[in-house]
Amino acid sequence: MTVPQPVITIIDYGASNLRSVTNAIRRLGYQPLVTGSAKEIAGADAVILPGVGAAPDTMVSLDKLGLLAPIKEYIAAGRPFLGVCVGLQVLFTSTEEGGGAPCLDIIPGRVKKLSGDLKIPHMGWNQVKQLVSHPLFRGVPQTANFYFVHSYYADPADRSVVIGATDYGQAFASVIARGSMVATQFHPEKSGESGLKIYDNFIRMAGAGK
Amino acid sequence: MLTKRIIPCLDVKDGRVVKGTSFARLRDAGDPVALASFYYREGADELVFLDITATPEGRDTMVEVVERISEKVFMPLTVGGGLRAVSDMRRLLMAGADKVSINSAAVSTPELISEGAAKFGSQCIVVAIDAKRLENSKEPRWEVYIHSGQKPTGKDALAWAERAVMLGAGEILLTSIDADGHKAGYDLELTRIISEAVSVPVIASGGAGTPEDLYMALTEGKADAVLAASIFHYGTHPVGEIKKYLKQKGIAVRV
Question: Is there a domain that residue B255 lies in?
């Protein structure tokens, strides 16, 4: 007997890492649904919001597709959600990027520009300190490196949502979790086998929630 | 701590990987998809593909190659060579590339940098600079060359790097034409001067012959990443061996 596969939906709003995220999920043996339709997001077992580039542009693209409210409703219902890079940043109240812009306001806090005497963007492989034991980290060692490329970072008002931290001049929140909603500032789809493990863990979390 | 990146570079012509010596002679070194998978397993941190094909058919081939590679390897991919327009960038990024590298077109049309950065974000836009040392200059200076290192532009490499970053380049891929292909080490002075001047990461390129050359580029040269081709392709110094060496020397690398 075959176990029915969970419906893993990847939100398509033109993010340029869409294909890489899709390839990573396929590599794990799933057939993701890639869609920009609000209806299909509502019917998903797990939703992934990829992201690259600027958070204000992402907000504009999601708004054009009429996806802002559906994403908020989906997350408010406590359903499994994974935001990647800019897909993490837009979950916050607002961002400093592009002169300042409102975001989805699902997690209280502001997205700020990285500062200090360091090269910006923060580009390359860096470690994630796992602050708590979380199913997203199952089988991922503390020494694992993940691929980052970003100039802004999230600063949550409530630090209890931070489950992973990374050092780049300062410690910043690189992994966020609240209930079934998780998000990573790094790109799991570009982080080798450790990154694939993160996606696999997320899908298992989603499956266990059914 | 952010680790230093070790980046094999694959020059691709008509869907095959080749590598030249000082841009002139070419020698076949294999299938890009197989090589990419090999480097992924070996622990390379990123891959750069330079498409040196001159024809439109060859460019379509490159898009297909990128699509096939991104199904197999889950690491950052940069693709450059012959990009002329934002639409060229979009095609490669949607095929699975994470960054696009522009060289000659950025010199002739600097707005391409700002347009690309506005469309896809600075982190996607790598400006590749081929620089040649000016021999009769009192101060150390380098001139920017375009068209695969064939054509001098009269532009100062440092000034151009700074301008490219101002326009929105998220990274500089800096190649010393003098050092390239000679396996006698990177141009450390060039690398350091540019790396210290710009706020974005600099990838040193051209001249890697030994693991020590990479170490020097990352320390003396202040590079954020090092790129090399032949020492990896011909198995002279595998990625793993180089990383082990760098780690022993106190460089933060991903192992």
Answer: no
The amino acid sitting at B170 is G
Which of A31, A123, A199 to mutate: most B Cβ within 10 Å? A123
A contact residues 78-137, partner B, Cβ 8 Å cutoff: 119-127
- Structural domain contains residue B253: no
| Closest of B245, B250, B242 to residue B45, by C-alpha | B242
Query: Closest Cα of chain B to A16: distance in Å?
Result: 5
Tens digits of residue pLDDT in A44-87: 999 999 988 889 999 999 999 999 999 999 999 999 999 999 99
pLDDT at B148: 87
Number of domains in chain B: 1
Give the domain CATH number at B199. Answer: 3.20.20.70
Q: Does A197 touch chain B if contact means CB atoms closer than 8 Å?
A: no
Looking up tokens 């040392």 gives: B133
Domain-wise residue ranges, chain A:
8-208
Measured between CA atoms, how close is A178 to chain B, in angstroms?
Answer: 26
Positive or negative CA dihedral for B119, B117, B180, B183?
negative
Containing A111, the helix (H) or strand (E) segment is strand A107-113
Nearest CB to B76 within list A26, A126, A190? A190
Asked if A149 is an interface residue toward chain B (Cβ–Cβ < 8 A), one would say: yes
Give the rounded percent of residues in chain A with a pLDDT score beyond 70: 97
Residue A71 DSSP symbol: H
Is A189 tagged catalytic? yes
Tokens linked to A178? 């609240």
State the pLDDT at residue B16.
85
**B1 at A interface, C-beta within 8 A:** yes
The token pair at B113 is: 């940098």
Of all residues in chain B, what percent carry a pLDDT higher than 70? 95
Inside any domain, residue B254: no
DSSP state letter for B161: H
Q: Which of A150-154, A179-183, B118-122, B169-173 has the lowest mean pLDDT?
A: B118-122
Segments forming the whole domain that contains residue B149:
5-248
Tokens encoding B187: 């141009």
Most A CBs within 10 A among B33, B37, B68, B74, hence the mutation to make, goes to: B74
Distance from CA of B14 to the nearest CA of A (A): 23
Q: Which residues of B touch A51 (CB under 8 A)?
A: none
CB A53 within 8 A of CB B118: no
* Superfamily name with CATH number, domain A8-208: Class I glutamine amidotransferase (GATase) domain (3.40.50.880)
- The confidence score (pLDDT) of residue B151 equals 94
Residues from chain B contacting residue A127 (CB–CB below 8 Å) = 1
The H or E element containing residue B58 is: helix B56-72
